[in-house]
Amino acid sequence: MTAEEPSDGPVVRDRRRIDPKTGELRDAPAGSAAGQPAEQAGAGSGPSGSEPKAASGAATSEALAAAEALAAERLDQLKRVQAEYVNYRRRVERDRDLVRENAVASVLGELLGVLDDIGRARDHGDLTGAFRSVGEAIEGVTAKLGLERYGEPGDEFDPTIHEALMHEYSDEVTVPTCTKVLMPGYRFGERVIRAARVAVAEPTEALPEAEAEPADAEPKSASDAKPKDASDAEPEETTDN
Predict the structure, then answer these.
(1) Of 42, 100, 155, 214, which sits with the fewest C-beta atoms within 10 Å of its C-beta?
(2) pLDDT (tens digit per residue) in 26-65
(3) pTM of the prediction?
(4) Is residue 169 part of a domain?
(5) How many domains are contained in the chain?
(6) Is residue 196 part of a domain?
């Protein structure tokens, strides 16, 4: 029985590409199973195959947009956190400097009495010997810490840094002037630890004008001002009936 004759039994078809007898490549028959993958591939490239690709591209674009939005949000949060940290660090440094300044100012304020004693001893010529060395050392340390002494006769009076204990008028000044420093002032940086206590002189032009007496007022005589006594009254004439 040949391959062309019909048979009621199972039909076996040789689909081998190479002939086992000759070893040569056989020609694939048209419509055979070997051509089915190409046909299926061609069918997949048609309009029905473009729809999954379009859906996949849209999903990829949405995922990319969501990722970009999330990255922008995280970057904004990072910038805010960094700004908060920078502000916190600046505030901590400012508070640290303020605490140090307050501590130094408090110590220097307690030493003002000692500096006053040293100054009075120098004015009276008692700052000699070992006491002079100690006094100059204390003044040097306080100056190194930033304590500044101010207040000299002739300075213009400033109520923010001077305290007036005495007041007078003078023709020798044109503005309120410190004529005498009763106690020097001290400041630490921009902070006044103790105001200078001074005597102040103002120009004479600042004197309040005296109230002028009215021109039409007539001075009273002594006789008008003195009340009459009963004895000075003239006696009344009496007639006898």
Answers:
(1) 214
(2) 776 555 444 454 444 444 444 455 566 667 777 788 888 8
(3) 0.53
(4) yes
(5) 1
(6) yes
